[in-house]
Amino acid sequence: MQNSTLEVSILTDMANFEYDSKRLDQNVTRGRFKDEVAIVCGGASGIGRATVKRFLNDGAKVAVFDLNGDNDFGDENVKVYQIDCSKKEDCETSVSSVISDFGKINHLVYSVAYFGSKALDATEEDWSKSLMINVAGAGFMISAVTPHLEKAEERRRSVCLLTSISSTQAQWHRWTYGATKGALWSLVRHATLELGEKGIRVNSVSPSWIWTPEVAKAYPEKSEINSPSGPGQLYHSLGRVGEVDEVAAAICFLASRDAGFIHGHDLQVGGGYHAMGPEGCQPAKFAGSTDS
Ligand SMILES: NC(=O)c1ccc[n+]([C@@H]2O[C@H](COP(=O)([O-])OP(=O)(O)OC[C@H]3O[C@@H](n4cnc5c(N)ncnc54)[C@H](O)[C@@H]3O)[C@@H](O)[C@H]2O)c1
């Protein structure tokens, strides 16, 4: 398929990547974020967009920070701020606007990513873009929201960053992306010290392959990605790729008071990917597996 055709079909098919309430236990979590405000960076698409919807379901008001300001959630409890999170000043100005508009901030989710990936061929610009958008942006946002999070009600203050299987697993030609995801996991652990003493919990969620517009650039059809020779079955012992709302549910759990003693944790949402070794899902032949 031509790239332009593919992009158009992805855009017109956004419904494919939507939050699906029927899969979730969302009825039991309704109202748990009543009177709370969350900022979701990267909330216009994919996992971030599903996270906005889960926060809304659970009673929060949500500020979406995204390069893409053209987004309608059809809900008066959401406001979209068009911002480049890799610019420190943008982060600070937009956080001040959230305080003017909503009066407080309880939670920060950083779901922004630059997916461009290079290895031996990486230029100074490739490195700089990856590090600024994926890592420094998260740092800028944490710095900008911390003075407000610490004023929020106790046990209702959290930060969640999106790491990845690429944080810890080697993948072909993914140096620039993978290194930034590893750095985010390191940032989570470092930030537990300064944020912990202010009663702000900081964690991350590490997804494996999730059905999003980015993944669909390589696998336009869901049936293909979950076929016997596709990554859904080959890399996940649950036999499929994940859905955005399944990641959003984990992010919102970490923000909730039920996660009140979880701090400095990377929650794997990977359908078995993280547990698997080089043998994959295949039965292996070895001495202990025979009766003789
Ligand atoms: N999709 C997956 O399979 C997968 C797997 C592992 C980890 N992740 C991680 O999950 C997160 C979300 O992934 P996704 O697939 O939902 O992404 P996505 O591309 O659907 O959404 C990312 C959003 O970030 C916004 N954005 C990009 N650069 C920005 C910037 N400088 N400032 C503000 N906004 C910006 C984009 O406009 C977009 O709306 C990312 O951190 C990604 O690395 C995704």
TrEMBL record:
Q: Report the InterPro entries cross-referenced here.
A: NAD(P)-bd_dom_sf, SDR_fam
Q: What keywords appear on the UniProt entry?
A: Oxidoreductase
Does the record carry Oxidoreductase as a key word? yes
Which SUPFAM superfamilies does the entry mention?
A: NAD(P)-binding Rossmann-fold domains (SSF51735)
- Its domain of life? Eukaryota
Q: Quick check: keyword Ligase in the entry?
A: no
Q: Which family does it belong to?
A: Belongs to the short-chain dehydrogenases/reductases (SDR) family.
What this protein is called in its record is Oidioi.mRNA.OKI2018_I69.chr1.g573.t1.cds
| Native species | Oikopleura dioica (Tunicate)
The organism's taxonomic lineage, starting at the top: Eukaryota, Metazoa, Chordata, Tunicata, Appendicularia
